[in-house]
Amino acid sequence: MAYYAGSDPIVELFYWIALVSAGVSVLLVFQILMLRFVFMLAERHNRRLQTRWRSLLVSSFSSAGRLSALGAHTARVILPLWNKIFESVYGEREREALRDVARSIGLDRFALKRVKRISIRERLQAIRALGHLGTEEAWRVIDELTKSPVAIVSLTAAESLVRIDSERGLIRLLDLAETRSDWPRDRLAGMFHEIGADRLSYALASRMLRMPEEALGRLMRLMELMHEKDVLNVIRIRLRLSSNIDVIAGAIYLLGRIPCEFSLKTVRSYADHPSWVVRNQVAIALGRIGREQDHKILIRLTRDASRWVRFRAAQALVALPTVRLDELKQVLRQEDDVFAREILWQAIVEKESIR
Amino acid sequence: MSADTLHLIEFLILIYFVAMNTGYLLLNLSAAIAISRYLDTSDASAIPSVYAGFELPISILVPAYNEKQTIVHSVHSMLTLDYPEFEIIVINDGSSDETLETLIREFAMIEVPEPYWKRIETQPVRAIYRSPKYPNICVVDKENGGKADALNAGINVSRYPLFCTVDADSILGKHALYRAVRPFMENPDVVACGGIIRAANGCEIRVGQLTRVGLPGNPLILFQIVEYLRAFLFGRMGWELFNSLLIISGAFGLFRKEVVVSIGGYRTDTVGEDMELVVRIHRMMRERKQPYRVTFIPEPVCWTELPESLSVLKNQRVRWHRGVSESLTMNMGLLFNRKGGFVSWLTFPFMVLFEWWGPVIEITGYVLMLLFYLWGMISYSTFVVFLFAAIALGTLLSITALVLEELTFNTYPRARHVLVLLLVAIVENFGYRQMVACFRLAGFVRWLTGKKGGWGRMERVATWARSR
Description:
The structure holds two protein chains of two kinds.
Chain A: H1 9-59, H2 72-88, H3 92-104, H4 107-114, H5 120-133, H6 139-145, H7 151-164, H8 166-179, H9 185-195, H10 197-209, H11 213-219, H12 228-241, H13 245-255, H14 261-269, H15 276-289, H16 295-301, H17 307-319, H18 325-334, H19 338-354
Chain B: H1 3-41, E1 58-64, H2 71-79, E2 86-93, H3 99-107, E3 110-112, E4 125-130, E5 137-142, H4 147-157, E6 162-166, E7 171-172, H5 176-186, E8 190-199, E9 204-206, E10 209-212, H6 219-234, H7 237-240, E11 252-256, H8 257-262, H9 273-287, E12 293-304, H10 310-330, H11 341-356, H12 358-374, H13 380-408, H14 415-427, H15 432-449, H16 463-466
Parallel strand pairs in B: 1-2, 1-6, 2-5, 8-12
Antiparallel strand pairs in B: 3-4, 4-5, 6-11, 7-12, 8-11, 9-10
Helix pairs in contact in B: 1-13, 6-13, 9-10, 10-11, 10-15, 12-13, 12-15, 13-14
């Protein structure tokens, strides 16, 4: 553009915009090439580092070698690897060996510094490592992180508290589970599953007996991870006084997975509930645990005002081992309700095609 | 023409150029923040694992019109998805080829007397088929009514609370549903979620799954790949940060069914039904004062076949731009709406000015400058400076999208891929972008003249289907 001799200020501005854009583009091209180059080098370097440390960490299970403290860069690469190996071994002796190695190379101190990082990813790795290390002095720092507005940070912190001190941590976890409505239920369930029904069941059941209805409705499905007797106990007490749809529907859902007289009696008693959500759960539950005398309830539900209840009732009917298809065809012939007839016919045809 | 008028035109062109490109560069920045947040909180190795079985079940809706060539492969590919509970609903929209017969034969479908629940008005449904062999496949055979009508029929038949729209020629990533459902699991206010679409051309696909990412040799597709990077990485993610994303591609989108039903489903009088739905969700949810979030995940979840010929590309872009025009004009109530927030006061006006009217202004700018030069009203150097600015800013935008890609996903693994894409990002500014702007202008004219459109037909080359 050597021939350009700007005189018009607008054209001049265009010229400079173009020049700056072109300049920045060239710089960005170099940045991309550099990034790819640096990325390739870093990946190669990290891979080498990880291969070396993987064997060092694994060999620590059998012999306690002396390792020197790590530099910040190496520690940053090793921390996720250490977490990964720790989570893949189950023996307490191996885990203790890994903890010893981590302390000797200063990974505990590094993780404590790392929990204050801006990068969430690095903070999460550090929180996780501190949980595995079970360092009591990390409790206060991690407990503070459970108050984080970022759900995943507080959830990971709560998980680490349970690892540091299982009893105190569980109490804290349950406190938080009750109030943190932003915690994804499937991740909370993952944590409960890891804690195990033996440790969790009684503590969660006691909490659920006095929990506000809103929180109970939200956490109801997590009772799947508790012992059946505790589930039945909570449902027996809470259902008597509750009018919350989430609580009732959740309870019926759970009872449909626990075949017993109490479950059957309770499920049947909600067959005429004003909410279709509850009646829908009744149809599903009876399809799982229902007996011969429940056929009538399900047939009645195939005439329900809600399409979903009719659909679930018909599907439940054909799924029951106590129902014979010719019996259902007889019902179909005698049925006056056009919606019930339609939905039953569909269910029968589907069932017959599978046979 | 007086010197003052000429000056004013130059000034307006300058203002428009600066505003548009600054807007896009800021979007880039916003996208970088959004992507970094996403990557930070989705590192599976650092967060508590999920307990399987709590995921929301999903109905995958696959509208099909004369898709005999690819439909079986697509359904087989969807059957391999890693997700605990989903159903695949193929809606045959009155195909004139053997789409229906092929499906019936391949999946042993049988007609079931299923009552059709018309929650959303559609063309008559002729029959519903289910498969005893594959209990999670359903085929709805209906009279022709267009893609939107087919999707509405799919919604009516679906059994699950979330539905996912997928084009019949697309390949979903194995974990696409897991990734797309996460925002719904983490925030009950999420009503819709889109994901990044990438080009399947040049990639290796085996048994319905993408096994190797590659680049095709066809320059037309390479140009589109860079375009897709721009559109999805910062065009979508940039707005996501402010909950004002207006487009979720029809090739992949996950929606909360009850919300979509409550606003009347897809509109059948537009060719841009996917964008129109999202814009309407924003408008209706804000009118109802209901909390909601339209979100986007920056990971590649869907791979689709891009047009390999110019005529197909032209048809596609004409249709897309008509869709943009219709979606925006049908929801004008959102523009500068008192309750509309960010989406009303920034995103919608931005879309009107730079996306909808963009090609009109851009082409007018090129033509005017060329005419001024030919009529001797501006000097050669002014003309060249104008072109230089347009090309340099265009290149900058494409390259920033590549930087974003390089900093985050590195989808294209080999160094050669990066070099090719860099070259394409520069070369596309010498003709390709102007050509696409012309296609979009044709779409604008098509919208103005009110010509009716039908199913967006695309010649399927379906090389991936053959490589199965």
